Inverse folding.
């Protein structure tokens, strides 16, 4: 397994040097969709994960045609290098990265540490309006080799690596959502039987940057991830598990890693499926 | 705006405090609120549970569960940490950065 780190991750210095590079498009994706408006990396466009990346009727991605229209309107071309970053330790930027890969964008990268590292470094943020010339973006058909659906999650019990990346209290069933959100949810608490719990946060340093490849390899080996098996990562709604999907597939080079974006909000609402509680 | 109990229940109108365990407070340095600090909630074993950024008035809020928690702050203005045992309802945590 060779690290692909240089192809998929850029640091803040690289970003700073490429702010005016016409072939590099910076895009901010936040859970808090107002963060961009308070200041963003100069020239960066905003992607709203709720209104732009989700279908507004069906619980799913936007379809291929809508994704093409969205990227065209944002001024992103097929041959552009897209650098994604955001708040919350890049959770939603990692989600967008995975999403761009589902639709086959060739060169997409994450800014290591996202907004947090950028801010802690005291780097400049801009409130200038960003407009880019529209493009005619062409997406590929969705790549389901990196996206898992509910039946696959169920079939993975005792067969594949199931990596639950939520916090230990969500895994055990004590909490139903990450603790910055209200806890009243309809689904049951707990986790998918046979899942290992490797919180996404163990893959990141305090400043939001990813840990080294060696540290990451040790982390998953110690947690019991079986290299000989396929892997499905999940969390609550698929954004934190995108972070872990990125680590396993894009940084560590594991093959056959899927993100189950239905995650616990779907699984924990299914009638009759097995649920495990406790640590 | 910043400080218990004046911060009080602002914004909590829609929250059922008989069910939720709210941990909230303010980040301060030299008596002044610190905005945009990274406030992290760690569980009883020290594991990351959530992270928010403090508001313009230095405020933060988590929805946790009864038990032991630690709130840790990382900011360009300094660091701070406080541990507390929480019950259902409103729990106040004040962070003073050094």
């Amino acid at each position: 397994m060779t690290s692909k780190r240089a192809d998929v991750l850029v640091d803040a210095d690289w970003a700073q040097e490429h702010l005016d590079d016409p072939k590099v498009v910076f895009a901010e994706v936040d859970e808090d969709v107002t963060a961009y408006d308070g200041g963003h990396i100069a020239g960066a466009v905003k992607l709203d994960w709720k209104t732009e990346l989700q279908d507004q009727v069906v619980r799913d991605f936007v379809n291929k045609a809508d994704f093409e229209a969205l990227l065209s309107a944002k001024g992103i071309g097929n041959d552009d290098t897209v650098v994604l970053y955001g708040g919350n330790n890049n959770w939603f930027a990692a989600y967008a990265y995975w999403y761009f890969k589902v639709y086959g964008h060739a060169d997409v990268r994450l800014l290591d540490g996202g907004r947090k590292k950028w801010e802690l470094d005291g780097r400049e943020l801009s409130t200038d309006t960003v407009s880019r010339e529209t493009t005619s973006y062409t997406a590929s058909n969705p790549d389901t080799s990196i996206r898992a659906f509910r039946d696959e999650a169920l079939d993975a019990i005792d067969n594949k690596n199931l990596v639950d990346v939520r916090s230990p209290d969500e895994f055990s069933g004590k909490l139903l959502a990450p603790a910055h959100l209200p806890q009243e949810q309809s689904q049951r608490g707990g986790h998918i039987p046979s899942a290992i719990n490797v919180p996404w946060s163990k893959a990141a340093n305090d400043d939001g940057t990813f840990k080294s490849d060696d540290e990451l390899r040790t982390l998953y080996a110690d947690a019991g991830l079986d290299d000989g098996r396929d892997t499905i990562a999940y969390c609550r709604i698929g954004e934190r598990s995108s972070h872990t999907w990125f680590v396993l597939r894009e940084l560590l080079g594991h093959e056959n890693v899927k993100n189950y974006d239905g995650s616990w909000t779907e699984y924990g609402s299914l009638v009759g499926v097995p649920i495990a509680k406790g640590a | 705006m910043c400080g218990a109990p004046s911060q009080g229940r602002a914004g909590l109108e829609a929250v059922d405090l008989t069910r939720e365990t709210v941990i909230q407070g303010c980040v301060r340095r030299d008596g002044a609120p610190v905005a945009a600090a990274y406030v992290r909630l760690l569980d009883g074993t020290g594991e990351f549970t959530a992270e928010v950024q403090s508001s313009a008035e230095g405020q933060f809020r988590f929805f946790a569960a009864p038990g032991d928690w630690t709130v840790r702050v990382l900011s360009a203005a300094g660091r701070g940490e406080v541990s507390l045992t929480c019950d259902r309802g409103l729990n106040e945590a004040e962070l003073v950065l050094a």
About this structure: Confidence is low (pLDDT under 50) at residues 1-7 of chain B. Chain B has one domain: 21-96.
